[in-house]
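Table 4 source record.
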Amino acid sequence: MNFAPSSLAIKKPATIFLFLILLTVVGWISYRDLPREASPDITWPHLYVTVPFPGATPKDVEAQITNKLEQELQNIEHLEEMRSRSSNGLVTVDLKFDFGIDLDDARIKVREALDTIKKDLPEEAEDWIINEFNLAEQPIMTINLSSKAGLLFLKDVAEDMKDRIKSIPGILEVTRFGGLEKEVQIRVDPDKLAYYNLDLNDVTNTIQLENRTIPGGTMKVGPRELFINVPGEVTSFLELKEMIVSDVNGAQVRIKDLADVSFTFKEVESKSRYLGVESVSLNISKRTGENLVEISDEIKGIVKDFEEQYEGKITFSILNDNSEWVVKFVSDLENNIYTGMLFVFLVLFLFLGQRNAFFVGLAIPFSMLMSFLVLRMIGITLNFIVLFSLIISLGMLVDNAIVIVENIYRHVQSGKGTIEAAITGTGEVAMPVIASTLTTLLVFFPMIFMPGIMGEFMNYLPKTLIVTLTCSLIVGLIFNPVICSQLMKKPAVAEKVDEVE
């Protein structure tokens, strides 16, 4: 009895060995490049709608905005739960959707519903904000800058660092806290406006029109086409003072005639303190599915460059570095995998002997390498659930190989050649091995459809086990028979029988 895929592979050993070499290289690269994460990337099906209503009391907010929002949003498809909170000058609506929904589609539907009732909201209400919560987008690191040189200097350096960090592929957002920002304040005198028969809109319109760059069209010079811009943005606060608001009968009224223009600092909206000293901080978050460890290493490289540039002037401190915990946690789990592999090899050696233990043991690294390749292709990160799943699968990876290698060895002992023994031995147990693997896979398969947030986390376990056990089946039916047919030697008893015959 022959199993066609195994027989074909045994007859083409050179091709299979080349494929094994390729699998080893590509599998190792996939393992090295797998994004390391503390936990799986879980999309929480929540959207938060915020509508500012400045100056309104909670009762007014509820009557004029909240009730209208609830009435319109409750009709959105796949909406599981809706909660709202009205406070002074603000309403926040928490929309919880069914798990598995495409959150981008949900966001579109929410925006469409809000557009529908926009005309019914008070004119004083500001534009709504739609946010979502994602664990993977939480800050992975905080960089603190402290110095006696002043918050304005720290802010400028922090902005330079922010630009460098944002250039790293995989960075989602870099948020700065603390520091001073320059701004031009224009305090308009109402009495002067009335004297010149002007209003505040005349001043704001003048600033908007004068402070912009105007496109001037294109100009062809030979084969080249040049784009022309007329620069008009303000470069000095003194230019603001000289802007002409009104020109009636040669009487020019400038902003300096209507307002007090001063160059000062913007009101501080956020502060950062480190060890009791005011400082500037950068919160950094990454995109979903990106390698946390690699991104953190690149950020630390940038911090090191800035430390060398501002040595003695600024103290840079890295806080809340998630990569350190992830590296330690992943390293501990990887060590558990290596320890488990060692124990598996030891058991194989004790019960199967040195030669057969070697053939069976090869199923572990080849199955793992193939699994890493598949996991990388389907976009699964190397998080703690995946690593736990790999540990669980260690003992099961060799089940198929044990049955197949031992059956091949039995035929070799009976006096058959290694190629014939590999074809016959694999063919005899191929169907039982496939059936045994399928029964195990089908036990884990329903876990993929486990509902709720727990299901979102736990479905990584069955996915990983299904991938690894399927890979071990391929290794057992294809690779192990080929290796045995080329490297397995006849036992001494079988060799003596051949000599007598």
